[in-house]
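Homework help board

Subject: predicted structure for assignment chain

Our instructor gave us this sequence and asked us to write out the predicted structure in token form, then describe one feature. I got the tokens but I'm not sure how to describe them. Can anyone check?
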Amino acid sequence: MVGFERLKKYLWRLMRFPPRVAYAIGLGPLIGRFVLLLTTTGRKSGLPRVTPLQYEEIEEVIYIGSARGDKADWYRNILANPKVEVRVKSHRFVGSAEAVADVERVADFLEIRLARNPRMIGVLFRFTGLPVKPDRIQLEQYAAKRAMVMIHPQENSL
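My token output:
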């Protein structure tokens, strides 16, 4: 079992590499429709940590869901230090991240994600055992195991 966990962690880290390369070579405006680069400060090391993540922008606030709930390193880094840097499309900004664990608000976010990206989110739901179009109760049960972050851009940043 330990070997499987190590392989899973390795594959997870490997998946983070292509979006970082795409942004580095100037493809941010293309992949930035779905993926941003979030820079947090490591809670133990104090070093910058860059993580590509899917997001939604709603009324000038960036919403990011954590599929790993409160176990994700980037999420735990935010709890320790909410100041973040975001690179999305061709823009960069500094923001203040707010952790949201309220099940109803996370479920609302998932409904928006599903409405905006039905195929992609439907596939994600199927991988986790949900139907492609879950009802509200199923979404709230799923949301109870997840976490969400809202990033509020700071004025005059970067």
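Reply (TA_rk): Your tokens look well-formed. For the description, you could write something like this. The chain has one domain: 2-153. That's the kind of observation they're looking for.
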